[in-house]
Design a protein that fits this description.
It is built from eleven helices and 13 strands. With 340 residues, the chain is α/β, with parallel strands linked by helices. It has two domains: 160 residues, NAD(P)-binding Rossmann-like Domain (Rossmann fold), CATH 3.40.50; 158 residues, Dihydrodipicolinate Reductase, domain 2. Strand 1, helix 1 and strand 2 form a beta-alpha-beta unit. It is globular, with a radius of gyration of 19 Å.
């Protein structure tokens, strides 16, 4: 079988680094080009030291003319706002997986409200399928373009999907979700500078985080979502990982709520239902999402943990690529965690 020719736009950031780490080991993929204007001309291993000696690929500048690209799939691992300009130039025969937020939201008004600028290609949004692999698998298999979910959105949606699908939630949902510093990207800032970050813990973007409309939009696609949500994000002093806590009440007491989750995810390899609590250490560097759920009468708490750069970004993108090309979705993603 001919290998899938993949191109990565934005290969110098953490998301691009993880795509390279995964795809270099993928048995069905050949990385044909990696684009990063800032590092054009540099060997991959000189920028991503973890990949030194493992590839001869060199970063290329993003070409102005994309009409002659000899690629089967493109991963857009660019900052928000860049993908919408490139997608118009990419031939329709090339499948696209966009890791930014440019094509996640259906409404242009929501994009302006939460991202802060006008969408320049909203007419193309309908061509993108929301890429939460476990809940949208069949649509992903038959589509040409995928909007890869945000990292917080992935953790929260996987935590809440079984209860929404079964229409079990009664009333308001409170979500507090914590992330590591790698979620801020590879370029350093005052907030990610080690002396500032190492002992720091703070909340940010209350009631205005861009993943909230994405979460609520897809919950409404999963089932009858009639709840409201308070969604608060927090920064914790670790480099990678997301830990989400979801607090809610159900319409009636469920004697063994864990069985609801085990049944919902029984065919999903990358979802693990665990006792007590997940731990970000168990999922670090893997494509797993670990979930624990507990109830006391109608009161329910759901915990979920993912690696924000893998299941929350590059790993899920590759999982979606596998689905789009008819491969086993686990292909290239049997990434094992470490202990400790």
């Amino acid at each position: 079988m001919k290998k899938i020719r993949a191109g990565i736009f934005g290969g110098s950031g953490y998301g691009g680094s993880e795509l390279l780490r995964i795809l270099l080991q993928h048995p069905e993929v050949e990385i044909s080009a990696v684009y990063a204007n800032e590092h054009a001309g540099k060997p991959i291993g000189n920028v991503h030291k973890n990949l030194y000696g493992l590839t001869d690929l060199i970063f290329e500048p993003i070409p102005d003319d994309l009409s002659n690209l000899s690629l089967d799939v493109i991963f857009l691992a660019l900052p928000h706002g860049h993908a919408m300009r490139l997608v118009k130039k990419i031939p329709e025969k090339i499948k696209i997986i966009d890791l930014s937020g440019d094509f996640r939201l259906n409404r242009a008004e929501s994009y302006v409200q939460f991202y802060g600028w006008q969408h320049e290609a909203i007419e193309l949004q309908k061509e993108f399928v929301y890429g939460l692999s476990e809940t949208n698998r069949q649509l992903i298999k038959s589509c040409e373009r995928v909007a890869n979910p945000g990292c917080f959105a992935t953790a929260v949606l996987l935590a809440l999907a079984p209860l929404v699908r079964e229409d079990l939630i009664d009333g308001h949902i409170v979500v507090d979700a914590k992330t590591g510093s790698s979620g801020s990207g590879a370029k350093p800032s005052e907030k990610t500078h080690h002396p500032e970050r190492m002992n720091s813990f703070y909340a940010y973007k209350p009631f205005r985080h861009q993943h909230q409309p994405e979460i609520e939009q897809h919950l409404d696609e999963i089932g009858e979502y009639r709840s409201s949500m308070t969604f608060i994000t927090q920064s914790m002093p670790v480099s990678r990982g997301i830990f989400a806590c979801c607090y809610l009440e159900t319409k009636y007491s469920i004697s063994n709520i864990r069985e609801t989750y085990e049944h919902f995810y029984q065919k999903d390899f990358f979802i693990r239902i665990v006792d007590e609590s997940p731990d970000i250490n168990w999922v670090k560097n893997t494509n797993f999402c670990d979930i624990a759920v507990h109830s006391n009468g109608k009161r329910v708490v759901v915990f979920s943990a993912i690696d924000n750069l893998v299941k929350g970004a590059a790993g899920q993108a590759v999982q979606n690529m596998n689905l789009m090309f008819g491969l086993d979705e686990r292909e290239g993603l049997m990434l094992l965690g470490s202990r400790p």
